[in-house]
Amino acid sequence: MERFILLEDIKDNTKYVNTYEDWGLILNNIEDPLPSPKTDYIANSGGDGTIDNTEALDEVKYNDRTPKFTFTMREKFNDIGKIKSKIANYIHGKRFKITMYRDLDYYYIGRISIEDFAINKATGTFKLVATCNPYKYKQNITIYKFNVDNERIVEITNERKNVVPKITISDDMKIEFEEHSYSLERGTHEVLNIYLKQGVNVLKIKGTGTFKIEYQEASL
C-alpha cells in the first residue's frame, strides 16, 4: 500500500488530491503529536498547591495540533520548480480536510503551509505543516433511528469530544436526559442541555413515532 494523504477542499468536497496518485509525492514521515491540554491552575493562597479549574466547563479544552508530513518529489530535476509551484498554488495557506492513509475513517481540519523546501542530489524534499483543530473527526456522521411506542430507553455511544446532537422526531415527544426533562414538538431540534459525553449516554424517550439522533463524533 502506498503512503499518502488526502486533501479535500473545505469549500468544495468534490475537489480533493491524493498526494501520491495526483502529485507523485513519496510520503517519508508523519509527525502527529497530540494537542496539549489548556490547563487552568489558580494560586491557592490559603492552602497547599493550586486550584485546578481545567475542567470547569465539564470538558478539557485543547490547543491546536500540528501534524507534519515530509515528502520527496519523484519528478526529474528540471521539473521540480514547476511541481513546487503547482503544489504551493493549490494548498499553501489554505484550509483542508486532511485524511491519512493509515487512519482513513477520520479526518483533520487545518490550514496548510509548505516548509523546508530543499533540493538535494537532484531530488526535491519539503514538509506540509498543518495547524489543525485539536480533534480528528469521523468521516461519517453517526446516526441512530428508533421507533418509539409510549416509552423507550436508548443508549447512545459517543467518542471523546462532547457534542450537542441533532434530534428529529415525527411527533411531539418528551426526552429525559441526566435527570432533566425536555418537551419537544415535532421537527428537528438542537437542545443545548442535551450534550453527549464520552462513552454511553442514556436517553428516555416518551411518545409515539420515530426518533432520530445524529451527531459528529471526534477523537484525539
What does this 3D model show about the protein?
The protein is mainly beta. The chain has 2 domains: 5-32 and 67-138; 142-219, Jelly Rolls, CATH 2.60.120. 5% of the residues lie in helices and 52% in strands. It is built from 1 helix and 17 strands. It has one helix spanning 80-91; strands at residues 5-9, 16-18, 25-31, 41-43, 50-52, 68-73, 95-100, 106-120, 123-132, 136-138, 142-158, 166-169, 173-177, 180-184, 187-189, 199-215, 218-219. The strands form 3 sheets. Strands 1, 2, 3, 6, 7, 8, 9, 10 and 17 form a 9-stranded antiparallel β-sheet that branches. Strands 11, 12, 13, 14, 15 and 16 form a 6-stranded antiparallel β-sheet that branches. It is flat and about 70 Å long. The protein starts with a strand and ends with a strand.
Give the gist of this structure.
The chain has one helix at 80-91, and strands spanning 5-9, 16-18, 25-31, 41-43, 50-52, 68-73, 95-100, 106-120, 123-132, 136-138, 142-158, 166-169, 173-177, 180-184, 187-189, 199-215, 218-219.
